[in-house]
Amino acid sequence: MPKLGFVFAGQGQQFSYMGRDLVEMYPLAKEKYERASNLLGRDVLNMDLNTAQSIQIGLFVLACVLDDLLKESDIHPDVVCGLSLGEYGALYSSGVISFEEGLKIISKRSQLMQDAFEPNTTKMAACIRTDRETIEALISDFEVEICNVNTPTQIVIGGKSDAVDKAIGYLKEHKIRAIPLNVPTVSHMSLLKNETDVLRDYLFNFNFNKPNIGFINNIEAKLQEDHFEDSLSRQISETTELYESIRLMIEMGVKSMIEVGPKGAISKFVKEIDPSVTIYNVYDVDTLKEIQHG
Length: 294
Known about the structure:
Elements: E1 3-8, H1 20-25, H2 27-40, H3 52-72, E2 79-82, H4 86-93, H5 99-115, E3 122-128, H6 132-138, E4 144-151, E5 154-160, H7 161-173, E6 177-180, H8 193-203, E7 214-215, H9 228-235, H10 242-251, E8 254-260, H11 265-273, E9 278-282, H12 285-292
Parallel strand pairs: 1-2, 1-8, 2-7, 8-9
Antiparallel strand pairs: 3-5, 3-6, 4-5
Helix pairs in contact: 2-3, 2-5, 3-4, 3-5, 5-8, 8-9
């Protein structure tokens, strides 16, 4: 029987007041945002999305609300994964963490990442129409690293801003386009090794459950059932492997996927990886209704 996969989006396509229409339409969403605001002591629905912390919290809450609303409509995944921050939405969906636990962890994670660098001193850029081996070779003389492998032809690099700018110029000389990303700080590279150690210690305060459906790890692209303290701490300083994660989903028999969260980037990745997969994207009332009535 064909399987359904949920793929939770990471940072980059967040938008102001995301979730507001869901709160106005669904009591479940209103209750979820109120719980988040009470726990964190801030108005989560109306935050300015201008820091790593506000963006990560906002996207996680939206992901959990959408996951709940999909399941309330009897739309249940067989397997889940997420890109970067989106991995926490996948952890929630598969029962590994509770909503409150996720909020606490993400608050700590995002604060560590936000405090690791002075504002506007790091950068990430998506290299398109290329491949991993080519990028690895071309950036070897620069202090930048591969942070995300999203598809066979989209590779994200990151580092200190001046180093990334130099790498972008060099890549352009070799006819490779690198597009700066809308993220407040770099992630998934060795500049965050110290933060990995701090986060690992913090994660031992939580009891992670065994997933109740298939959960695919973001840095190894493998099914995972335990040792989440290790993988989640390493995730902020190691390359994410969305391409291989999507391939594993397909190998497991997934024929349809829902990108949970804004706003279509992962859907494009999936179509490149395997055009035969049916992919939907949900991030607001209108897109939710399309799936519910589809």
